[in-house]
Sequence to fold (397 residues):
Amino acid sequence: MKRFLILLILPILACNGLSTPPPSTSETASPTSTGIALTQPSPPTEPTPNASTFPNPDAYEWQLVAERLDRPVDLQPDPFGRLWVVEKLGHIRLIQNRQLDLDSFFLNIDDRVNDESNEMGLLGLALHPHFAQNGYFYVNYTGARGDTFISRFTAGENSADPHSEVILLRVKQPYPNHNGGAMNFGPDGYLYLGLGDGGSGGDPEGNGQSLDTLLGKILRIDVDSAEPYAIPADNPFGDEIWAYGLRNPWRMSFDSVTGDLYIGDVGQGEWEEVDIIPAGSRGGENFGWDHREGMHDFEGGGPADMIDPIAEYDHGEGGCSVTGGYVYRGAMPEWNGIYLYGDYCTGQVWGVIRSGEAWQNQLLFDTDVTITSFGQDKNGEVYILSDSGAVYVLASK
Fold:
């Protein structure tokens, strides 16, 4: 474990915000008129064996990629090599050709994003698997009355029309915290959504264990077969729910090679946890909240088939909130297959490796960065985002 040197590797442009007209949720642009005409690079084809041990972290650092962002909370790649960065107040900006565009927004919906609480705002982003053809991307934000909105927008080449919003799902939020925010397309083409238990503390409404609400769940929906979406026929409960027993799944991600789904579920007052839904799962996993916090009793009791996390840590050294990350699949083979995740308050970054049926969990970096999110580019490199407005990438010294 070490504190690392930050190196600036991208130039930054001057900032100039844009305003947008009022939204219209009844209009959507044609998917055949997106104006996207960029070149899509060919993906890598050579498989790389997974690492069996952790690299020496002293040989690596988190290099500064960009700064002067306004509370970045998500980073996603598009097929053309650009990085989309979500700002919590309601904006999306682009990093393209190693430049962060601070002169304009790719999307500005701050007119409809409610960020009155620290856990509210524009929280998540996912690009459609066929984005290069249809220009569709999806966002998760808190809007009117603090409710969660899952919406689709249509992109042009250099911006997205805020009037192209189509609201897929609106979920009432009883409290202003534990909104979740994670969203990812799975290898099956379905959209997975992480929703928190509704907030307050201790899950007072029992949402985590209730199958009568979408709160405290991972949802799985089909955005291609119907408008606004369809429920996949093999979902375990006949509705949107795929997994339950979660407190606040702020960040989750699929391993781009195995298809396993990793979930960073924020704990109550003592324990933070990382859960996994293995590829090939039929859904229905119960991760135990609020019977348990991590592997430990909270309310106690509960069914016998609750799923243990693959990693956990306590708040004893200042940790407060797990930030789920990504399985590394980039150009440094010694990191291949290692899941990286961190803590919001301490900036510590851990790695997890699978060893047969067991999991190794090791503290690797002490960054002093307030980690709001991790990101991964199309080449498998892993990034961290800081609440201070900076983006860093893992690199060798």
